[in-house]
Structure formats: structure tokens, C-alpha cells
Amino acid sequence: MIVSKYSANGNDFVIFHTFVKKDRHSLAKKLCHRQDGVGADGLIVLVPKDSKEREYDFQGNQSKIDFEWQFYNSDGSEAEMCGNGSRACAHYAFANELAPSKMSFLTIAGVINAEVEASDAKGGMVLSELTPPQILETNIEHNGKRWFKINTGVPHLVHVTQNIEEFDMAEARELRQKHNANVNIVFVDGKNLRVRTYERGVEDETLACGTGMAASFYIAYKEGLVSNNIEVYPKSGDTLYLGVNERSITFKGEVKRVFTAEV
């Protein structure tokens, strides 16, 4: 089989397209294994969506769906949504002529709108408009810290910290198990934000998490800590551009096609 390896600000994915939709959790574990496989945080599979079918996007309008995706974490678990994965997926679809530069595709979380703003064989700049955020809880107390719980396609816990260098992995694992959510700490750096994320499914800190950055940004915005259009810096050190519009959270950044190979 032919697969492509993509990196979206340190979050890496194996991507391919096929006509058949089926359970691929075992394949995901095999391909994502960093010693015995390609190595990645997740597997993305693009499958056709019946062109006659219509789905409602988050604006309440009927939307033509260009394709459907299946997303698996590296442990084989299926995830509702992945922010960085949505941008890598959009570039792959455009580069392989599966969708136009402005596209809509179906995830478990709902319809994602994306636009490839600049592209070449090595990658490009891609914007995704995520599903509408839902703040679930605003005052979870744990170890004397205040945590927010929010869903930006998948559930996240967010804590506003005074020291981005202190991210307790034992605490993150405990919170992840207790609340079945990803765990983020966010630091206000002037007008912008720095974010670190422990991801479920990977079960470790990753270099970047798109929905985690979106969750952290939205909480900081709602708490009056930042404006509605800012830069966010994940552990990878890359720059992501996040904003809010009348519908949802916008999320833009660079993606890179690392290689395409036969497996």
C-alpha cells in the first residue's frame, strides 16, 4: 500500500485513501509504531462520501461533503476529531485531487470546513474551521488548581498556569483517566499563548495538539486574557494562528509532507 507521512507542527500522521470503509484499529497500531512501523501519532484514512448525500454543517446549512475520514490514535483507538490532523488531511486531499482547495469533510465530531491557502509538493498553509466549542465545566479542583473542561471536537481539560515549564505528567495521567479527556496547561505570553498537551490515545505529551490549542485559546479568550485573533505556540515551537468568528474557532498553520512510500 502507498501511504504519506505528514507533520503538522510536530503532530505526525500516516495518511492514505481508499474506497473501502472498515475497522482499521489494528492497522493503525501497526503503522503508527515508531520502531516496527512508519511511526506517527495517528492514522488518517480518507473514504468516499456518497455525492448524493447531504450533511448539515455547523452553520445549519446543507453542505456537500467531499469525503469522510477515519481517524485512529497510535494505540488503535478511534477519535472523534483531531485539529492538526484536519489540516494535514485537507492538504493531502487537495494534493491528491480528492477535493478542491476549499472543502468540507465528515468526522465523528461533525463536518469540518478547511481551506488550503498555499500549497506545493512539500506542504502548505492550511486553515480549518473546527466544530463549535462547548464549555462543559468551569471549576474542576485538582491539587489546588482550577481546571476547565471543554469540547473542541474531543474533550479537553485546561489549566491557566504561571509556569509553562512545569507540566506534571503524573498529574496529567491521573486527570486523563479520571475525566477521559486530554490535558492542557496554557501560559499567557504577552498577547499570545503557549500551550502544552498530554494526549489520550498517545498517552504522553505531544509536540502539538490542534484541538488542545483551540481549547486553551477559547478558555483564555472567554476569561478575557487574550483577544479574538492571536498566535499560539505549542511545545514544537511553531506558530499557529487561532481566532473566533460568528460560528466557531478558526485554526491555521503550516503542514509538511515528510514523504510518500510503499509499505
Structure description:
This protein has 263 residues and is of the alpha+beta class. Helix content is 17%, strand content 46%. The chain is built from four helices and 18 strands. It has helices spanning 25-32, 83-95, 169-179, 210-222, and strands at 2-8, 11-17, 42-47, 54-56, 62-64, 67-73, 102-107, 110-120, 123-129, 134-142, 145-151, 155-160, 182-189, 192-199, 204-206, 229-233, 240-244, 249-262. The strands form two sheets. The protein has an eight-stranded mixed beta barrel with strand order 1-2-3-6-7-8-9-18. Strands 4-5 form a two-stranded antiparallel ribbon. Strand 12 (155-160), helix 3 (169-179) and strand 13 (182-189) form a beta-alpha-beta unit. The N and C termini lie close together (5 Å). The mean pLDDT is 93.
Concise overview:
The protein is of the alpha+beta class and 263 residues long. It is 17% helix and 46% strand.
